[in-house]
Amino acid sequence: MAAAGAPDGMEEPGMDAEADGVAAEGPARALHCAEAEAAGAAAAGAAAEDSCAARGSLQPAPAQPPGDPGAQASVSNGEDAGGGGGGGGAARELVDLKIIWNKTKHDVKFPLDSTGSELKQKIHSITGLPPAMQKVMYKGLVPEDKTLREMKVTSGAKIMVVGSTINDVLAVNTPKDSAQQDAKAEENKKEPLCRQKQHRKVLDKGKPEDVMPSVKGAQERLPTVPLSGMYNKSGGKVRLTFKLEQDQLWIGTKERTEKLPMGSIKNVVSEPIEGHEDYHMMAFQLGPTEASYYWVYWVPTQYVDAIKDTVLGKWQYF
Q1: For residues 77 and 105, is the Cβ–Cβ distance under 8 A?
Q2: C-alpha 219 chain-centroid distance
Q3: Full-prediction pTM beyond 0.90?
Q4: 210, 229 in Cβ contact below 8 A?
Q5: How far apart are CA 138 and CA 277, in angstroms?
């Protein structure tokens, strides 16, 4: 029996439309699900990439080994670009120094904020000269408790060092062999220099009125002012100025001033003036033979050893 309201063979109105809607809705839902899955996969991929990038940015930079020049250079460049470093950079600031000892020059780099005591330790490592036996000079005696910055040491500064190693001291105190003793005895038999004719003509003029006072039996450091009031071999006035920071001896007369590098002076000899033993006559050997002696008369005796030490770079203990 046919359904009421519709003849056999005919569909009820609206059923085709509903069927078409259901058929159309199926592909649409499938499309929406595919799009959602694709969108989810894309979002997951982006999140994964962000996570990887984040992990990559958090990885530490490769460590430089200690003392690696590349690491130091990078720190230095960073400070330069930033207009200067902090306190740590200042502590590592180095200056170029010329350390001069026993006529030998050593070029070193040394921290500007290190003390005079630390500088002595550095000199010890270079020369073998114990700190207790060092006399270090830069515009005067270097204090152990001040830094090079406080002493206003600049790059290229010359540091003068006077002193003897333990071996040198032992060698000085070792008895000389018989040949050396005989040579010295023979030398003592020679006529004193002050009696030789070439020197008598100067010494006979008498002691200069403006010569510096002498202290017999004493040995002192060089004064801070030039040694003046003395005679040269011509009988003219002469003064000696020791320029330690320039490693030079200036010999000045009325006519001119000779500026001699101390390393060019081969030897220094002296002898007390007979009848005036508190003064010496002294010669600086400027060439290979005794003919190159530059004579100076009436040198106060208390400065004789200090002059030899400074010029020859040897420290004599007294």
Answers
A1: no
A2: 32
A3: no
A4: yes
A5: 33
